[in-house]
Specification:
Layout lengths: L1 H19 L19 H13 L33 H10 L14 H6 L7 H18 L4
Helix pairs in contact: 1-2, 2-5, 3-5
Length: 144
Amino acid sequence: MLKNLSLIALAAALAVGAGYAKQSTVKVVIPITRTPATNGQQMFVAYCAPCHGVDGRGQGPVASALKQQPADLALLSKSHGGRFPSNHVVAVLEFGDGNPARGGTAMPVWGRLFGTMDQSPTQSNMVAMRISNVSRYVETLQAK
């Protein structure tokens, strides 16, 4: 199943990248399709893997089209003293990276985008669940 999802994400990313390849300023667009809020892996493959790669190492199919290389998510624990920085990952997913040295948010603000997926009275809970589950999945990608 992961292989199928990876192939779908790769095909979508390549199609998007090819559509913008001839433009002088490349704008990467990742299609937003609704995925189960409970499946962090499926959300990662659909939303994060086009840039970060299915292994999280920053070598996704559209990474070369970006001005800034995507972060190697597999090294987060290593770069934070051996502890996975879950609060940081949740904050970046919810609010973007907002690094002014990189010209503002370099990646989509998934919290805002996730909020458009679940139109229900418990929408904020669903956004929090999506962000938490993606963060927990990223934790499983950490280099040993």
